[in-house]
Amino acid sequence: MTLPADYVAFLMQVGNGGAGPFYGLEPIQDTLYDDLYHKRPDALLNPGKPFLHTEPWNLEFQPSADYDENKDEYEEERKKFEEIYYEKEQMNGVLAICNFGCAVSLNLVVNGQEYGHIWTDDRGSENGIYPSDELGNKDRITFLDWYELWLDNSINEIITTQPPLQTKGSLDMDLTHIKKPWWQFW
Questions:
Q1: What confidence tens digit (pLDDT) does each residue in 127-141 have?
Q2: What number of H helices and E strands is found in the chain?
Q3: Residue 186 pLDDT level (bands cut at 50, 70, 90)
Q4: pLDDT > 70: what percent of the chain?
Q5: E strand or H helix at 107, and its extent?
Q6: What pTM does this model have?
Q7: What's the half-sphere exposure (Cβ side, CA atoms, 13 Å) at 144?
Q8: 112-118: which pairs have CB atoms within 8 A and are 24 or more residues apart?
């Protein structure tokens, strides 16, 4: 397995994790965990196997048993559905590079036909697995294009939501009109 060149360049020239979309970029040592909130050694992704998906994927739970009439059968059907839906094999071939929140991860495909693209694992909200579109992109997106889109969106938000800086003298600037602390611009 070879990491995408743009991701390697980022790691070597910018940094190992840090500022980025949503909860930021994960350090490379954490990208193998399938749950970015609870990093457990028994819950690892397998980037050495190919990523299975080339199109958005989701399953819908459609029980044959009614919960109110047969709770045990309904629960058994739900359990079997979840075993398939949350199968770790669904996310082979990726590194979990970004925590979106609410059990959603953004993943860099490092093995398979979607190599180099960012995909979202949104099974925690029962929305499946699909090419990342959270930043407003309509097409598949590579790591560097994804990161640059986040930077562009962040800068645009600052420009459009903050009044221009007013200078007083040569070095003093009146920053009292800024509504957000500097660490919340993104």
A1: 999 999 999 999 999
A2: 3, 6
A3: very low
A4: 88
A5: strand 104-109
A6: 0.81
A7: 11
A8: 112/50, 112/51, 112/52, 113/50, 113/51, 113/54, 114/51, 114/53, 114/54, 114/140, 115/4, 115/51, 116/4, 116/6, 116/142, 116/143, 117/141, 117/142, 118/142, 118/143, 118/146
